[in-house]
Description:
Belongs to the COX19 family. By secondary structure, the protein is mainly α. The protein contains 2 helices and no strands. It has a domain at 31-64. It has helices at 31-43, 52-64. It is flat and about 50 Å long.
Amino acid sequence: MSYGRPPNVESSPGKAPLLGSFPLDHDGECKISMKEYVKCLKENKSNNGLCREFSQAYLQCRMDK
């Protein structure tokens, strides 16, 4: 079954992100921001809207490193 696309069209494989575009935090430089964000999510039943400031701080830390 094609589920919405013509049956003769093959899906194209996804492209991997550019190497190093968002590196892993191997050195734990953003660990404090990450823990604050996760703690907020746990306290607010995974409601990201209530933890937006922690999310932004964590992602900003990741982009800066």
